[in-house]
Structures are given as C-alpha cells and as structure tokens.
Amino acid sequence: MQEKYKICVSGAAEIDICNAKAKEMAEEVGKEIVKQGAILITGATTGIPYWAAVGAKKAKGFSIGFSPASTEKEHLRRYRLPIDKFDLIVYTGFDYTGRNLVLTKAADAVIVICGRTGTMNEFTIAFEDEKPIGVLEGSGGTADLIRPLLKRGYRPRTTVVYDTNPKRLVAKVMQLVKKEKYKNHNHAR
C-alpha cells in the first residue's frame, strides 16, 4: 500500500484581498492534491481552505479539517465555519493560533494560496519546522509577500518552491515530500 501524504492548504478565510481567480486556483490545488495521491488538510474554514476542500471532493478525495472550536456546535455557532466539504473535522479547542500549530505540525507539507496574518502564522510554523512549502504566486496576499521577504537575507534550511500554476506547484511539493520521506526512512534503519 502506498503511503498517503497530508498536504495542508493555508490561505485567506476571506478572499476579498486575493486575486480574482484565487477561488478557482484553490479548487484546482485541492483537486491536484488528490490526483497526485495525497490527503488534503486545512483549517476547516471558509475562503481558500474551503475551496481547496471543494476541489478535493470533486476529485473524489479525502479532506480533514482542523477546527479552532472544541465541538461541532461551537464550530458552527461561535466560529460560523462550514462542515459540508470535510470528511473529518478535528475539533482542537485551541482557538485559531493553537489550531494553526496543530494543523501545520500534522502536515507533511504546506501550500500557501493568497492569505492574511493567519496564513503567515502557518507559513512561519512550517518554515521553522523545516517542512516543504509551496507558494502559489500571483494568488495575492501573503503568498505574494513570501519570496520578497525571504530574499531579504534569510537563509532557510526549509525548501520553499514557487509556481503560478496549481498543478505544477502541487507536483513540486509532492516531489519534496517524497524526497523527505525517503530520506527519513533510510536514516531510520
């Protein structure tokens, strides 16, 4: 049986700051994650993560949402977040910042599409954990700030790949994850 990788899509819950095509881009990323043999994980929220989950469902894939809420009731009523496109929701009870940590730690890689401050938080967690990161450039918000930020003298040990095409970006991220897993498994022996 082939191992299933968990790819996190991180992005803006409110897409008004995003590229006009960001919704479609997120849906395409969700589809590609499934087509390329992985499971989608998100913050179980609206906007970019939701549309990635829509794409995963259209590709007949599996998606897991990590909620900031403690219960389904709180998820729906207090946070006003969707449940319809997720196969499984993990109710972390850690509000947004704690949820971001658990979500990112659970991922094998993170893909950033558009985004705001929460997306930057998830990016920096993945960056510090040296996880493979893909950035969908041209999607707006945080995604378009990462390359310029890292060019300012940061020397990452983390591999960050960029692309404007969802299919190519997911392929690059999957290649990094497979390489990392192979390296981990060979060093464990």
Task: Write structural notes for this entry.
This protein is an alpha/beta fold. The chain has a single domain (5-187), classed as 3-Layer(aba) Sandwich (Rossmann fold), CATH 3.40.50.450. It is 45% helix and 18% strand. The chain has helices at residues 22-35, 48-58, 72-77, 95-106, 117-128, 143-150, 166-187; strands at residues 5-11, 38-42, 63-67, 88-91, 109-113, 133-136, 160-163. Strands 4-3-2-1-5-6-7 form a seven-stranded parallel beta sheet, with helices on both faces. It is globular, with a radius of gyration of 15 Å. The mean pLDDT is 94.
Briefly characterize the structure:
With 189 residues, the protein is an alpha/beta fold. It is 45% helix and 18% strand.
Structural class, by secondary structure, is alpha/beta
Total count of strands: 7
**Can you tell me the number of structural domains?**
1
**Share of residues in strands:** 15-25%
**CATH hierarchy class name:** Alpha Beta
CA-based gyration radius: 15 Å
* Proper CATH architecture: 3-Layer(aba) Sandwich
Largest sheet: 7 strands, parallel
CATH fold annotation: Rossmann fold
Distance between the termini: 20 Å
Low-confidence stretches: none
Shape: globular
Q: Strand order, biggest sheet?
A: 4-3-2-1-5-6-7
Mean pLDDT: 94
Q: Determine the fraction of residues in helical runs and give it as a percent range.
A: 40-55%
Helix segment count?
7
SSE string: EHEHEHEHEHEHEH
